[in-house]
Amino acid sequence: MKLKNKNILVVGLAVTGVATARFLINRGASVTVADQKKEQEIDSEEPLIREPGIRMELGPHRIETFERADLIVVSPGVPHTISPIRRAKEQGIPVIGEIELASRFITEPIVAVTGTNGKTTTTTLLGKMLEDSGLKVFVGGNIGKPLIAYADGEEKAEIVVIEVSSFQLDTIDTFRANVAVLLNITEDHMDRYPDLDAYTKSKARIFKNQQYNDTAVLNGSDPVVRFLSRDILSRKVFFSSKEEKGVAISDESIISQENMSRLLADFKLPGKHNMENAAAASLAALAAGGTFEGVRTALRKFKGLSHRLEYIETLNGVDFFDDSKATNVDSVAKALETFERPIVLIMGGRNKGSKFHTLRDLIDRHTKELIVIGEAKENIKAELGDIKPVETATTMEEAVFKAYNAAKPGDIVLLSPACASFDMYNSYAQRGEDFCRAVAKQRIDD
Ligand code: ADP
């Protein structure tokens, strides 16, 4: 792909936009970066603004800039359906995403992971399995370093493992994953997709360019995933969680069922969903050249990631768990299903169009009380408030205080919001940290 002297527009700044612009400049392109943010809102990307050769266009998008470009590269944060991009497409201007651009400059095998939930956990674990198998691995994409930064860097790996979001998949064209994992599809991002069908089609694009000798690792317990798997060309391996602890696999060409069970017996994270993540990561790692011993070592060592059903501490017999990353209803469902003991659940935040009422059965069976916070609190109350007592709180500290008061020794206090964090915080991580701080305050006050 020739980039030299091409007039390229990068839409969306942030980490990925910055890395993309750098990559393009390094290859002699003439680069404009357009972002609707105002200058004072982008201080963290400031070094880029001063970089010679990059034209910055902040504030409302100018259609002429889009129509004058030889190529448009869209960052994952920007919907590819916005009107200036649509109009440029209509005029025949190629529009691709950063993953697509990067993949055209990468020759190493690519393992890609997508799904509504569990991407980061599975991608991280998979990376460790391959490292523990003695391979030099790049892990990134939608987590950590963008793929374009890897394509731009000097240091090469033997294998590339990436997490990919549906937004990133929307803007691929020739991107091909040698091993592609689809963990699950449940309703999410209904603020950005018209319906579940559109969101499903986005996710299915991960298999778009796979060939017969590639591998697709698929969740056989997920009806939507099963349905879309009919159109996949590559070797398909399904994993399905069983009622009892364990996972069934559909094809033993990668690993026998017996050996898979042996591997998973060493995995410590709670919940059936984590068993699925572990099975998916193991199958993908083995298909990508990992060894049984490497996979086993990583599974044994893996402690899980922060803010994903993370145990925090026990106060007077009450266990506190931080699941701040649970920003949709299915991740909350999985958290509730994990525990046998009564849960006081802290929910709420910015509503992404979630159908909270789909949790009714699980709320009934697993919780004793709800504490609701943030913009979504009235919606949650309206959809779930007739099942269990609901209290409202204006701060996390108040929410934790009320939850702790409602809990008895042996109960669980769980932050699992089913909402984004941006009404009260910069990120889910900041929300989780605030929860932990509030729990620590209870300890001190006790
Ligand atoms: P993602 O990167 O897809 O957001 P994470 O690994 O960060 O996934 O986990 C996000 C949330 O989803 C956490 O609350 C976690 O406990 C939950 N989760 C993890 N794996 C799964 C799964 N396989 N199915 C449903 N929920 C999951």
Overview of the structural elements:
This protein has 446 residues and is an alpha/beta fold. The protein has three domains: 7-93, Rossmann fold, CATH 3.40.50; 100-301, Mur-like, catalytic domain (UDP-N-acetylmuramoyl-L-alanine:D-glutamate ligase), CATH 3.40.1190.10; 310-445, Mur ligase, C-terminal domain (Protein-Tyrosine Phosphatase, Chain A), CATH 3.90.190. Helices cover 37% and strands 20% of the residues. The protein is built from 18 helices and 18 strands. The protein has helices at residues 14-26, 46-50, 63-68, 83-90, 98-103, 119-132, 147-152, 166-170, 196-204, 223-228, 257-264, 272-287, 292-301, 329-338, 360-366, 377-384, 396-406, 428-445; strands spanning 7-11, 30-35, 54-58, 71-74, 95-97, 110-114, 137-141, 159-163, 179-182, 215-219, 235-241, 247-249, 310-315, 318-322, 343-348, 367-373, 390-392, 412-415. It has a seven-stranded mixed β-sheet with strand order 7-8-6-9-10-11-12. Helix 6 crosses helix 12 (272-287) and helix 17 (396-406) crosses helix 18 (428-445). The radius of gyration is 23 Å and the shape is globular. The termini are far apart. 49% of the residues are buried. It binds adenosine-5'-diphosphate. Residues 115, 117-121, 183-184, 273, 276-277, 308-309, 323, 325-326, 330-331, 334-335 line the site of adenosine-5'-diphosphate.
**Portion in helices:** 25-40%
Q: What's the Cα radius of gyration?
A: 23 Å
Principal-axis shape: globular
Structural class estimated from helices and strands: alpha/beta
Short description:
The chain is α/β, with parallel strands linked by helices and 446 residues long.
